[in-house]
Amino acid sequence: MNMSAFPSSLFATLLLGVAVTTATAQAGAGNLVPGPTTEDLAWKIGKSVKKPADNAGTPAQVELGKALFFDPRLSGNGTVSCATCHNPALGWSDGLKTGIGINGQKLPRSSPTIVNAAYNTQLMWDGRARSLEDQALGPMKTPEEMSTDFKHMKLMLQSLQGYRAMFARAYPGEPIAEETAAKAIAAFERTVVSTDSRFDKWLAGDRRAITQQEWRGFQLFKAPNKGNCAVCHSGPNFTDNGFHNIGIAHSGPGEPDEGRFRQRGVASMKGAFKTPTLRDIALTGPYFHDGSATTLRDVVAHYNRGGDQPSTGKLSPEVRPLNLTESEQDDLVAFMKSLTGIQRPIALPVLPQ
Ligand code: HEC
Ligand code: HEC
Predict the structure, then answer these.
(1) Cα dist. 208→16, 19, 34, 182, 188 in Å?
(2) Which residue, by CA, sits nearest to atom 41 of ligand 1?
(3) Residue among 97, 93, 109 nearest 294 (CA)
(4) Handedness of CA 140, 142, 145, 150 (dihedral sign)
(5) If you average pLDDT over residues 200-213, what whole number do you get?
(6) Are 96 and 173 in contact (CB under 8 A)?
(7) Could you read off the pLDDT of 245-271 as tens digits, one per residue?
(8) Using an 8 Å Cβ cutoff, are 203 and 346 in contact?
(9) Does residue 284's CB lie within 6 angstroms of at least one atom of ligand 2?
């Protein structure tokens, strides 16, 4: 069969089909894994996300936000868009240890995924943004990221017939300005969600959806005397929306990153960072706020040795040597890989002219 005759999206779908079938067959071959307990249902994720009253997320708003998200013309020199660092082909992150902004400038922190950011009540590694609307203007303003000149951006958007029509459809009566653009981007981000992983299917009652190894990994993940992961990675989005110092050693030049402490000056917040989601985690390495862990196995090894000497502040008492065997560590990794949602090809927007 000549595969090149297939459109690539169909080919990707076919491949995915094969992967899912293999996992099902594995689970089916031995005995089925147990179903979820009542407590496990705390991880069940709702399909709808909270939206602000003045930003309902109509199709026209999402379409506008998508165009803006992918449009490098929003940046100071026309080269950087949100998607440069939050790239759908790289799990809506960038595959780099830390972000690279305009003119190749290296950022101090790793680019988190935007997948399921809509579910979080704390945004950014240090929680300095409270809503997606709030957050969107940040990277534009930052000189190292997009270095947007808002006056220039407004003129650009107003001068293009395509954008004028889209703004009018999306936010009738509102000006073409950075606040409206931020609302549209937030509306688009609320559609970038992961709620249909094999783990979710298992939670919904399909005992063939995960393998024995993945199920064992979840048990280790929850057990306080084993992985103890769920004490922080709790709830539907695998985060307590809290901040913890998990013992990341100092790396690179410069002062240690004080994390949450800069927003909230209490001692326990020194070197504390937001608990990130684990959904789609297999797609978003390298890991940690400084990108210091390359693989999920490295992450598990970090926790297994009880973290490292923190670059600043005090290690959380919840992080301590775990004494997990090699195969238990593999099980934890396998479990985290079952949290990847179905990947649908995303059509890149045609940029408005
Ligand atoms: C040069 C790379 C870069 C660009 C461009 C960029 N970001 Fe980010 N983004 C980051 C980094 C790095 C962080 C984490 C920064 C921190 O916590 O201090 C981040 C954090 C975020 C978060 C928080 C996610 C969470 O769960 O905490 C969102 C949402 C986000 N960016 C959206 C956007 C949007 C929208 C744009 C375009 C307007 C954008 N980003 C442009 C690198 C980038
Ligand atoms: C004390 C709370 C806490 C515990 C316990 C904990 N985590 Fe974390 N986890 C965090 C925080 C906070 C971060 C981000 C830390 C940073 O980058 O400085 C994180 C980061 C991660 C990351 C990287 C995510 C990313 O996007 O970079 C993974 C994967 C992860 N944890 C998995 C686990 C596993 C598996 C366990 C159990 C073995 C575990 N965590 C236990 C709080 C915790």
Answers:
(1) 16, 14, 10, 42, 33
(2) 82
(3) 97
(4) positive
(5) 98
(6) no
(7) 999 999 877 899 999 999 999 999 999
(8) no
(9) yes
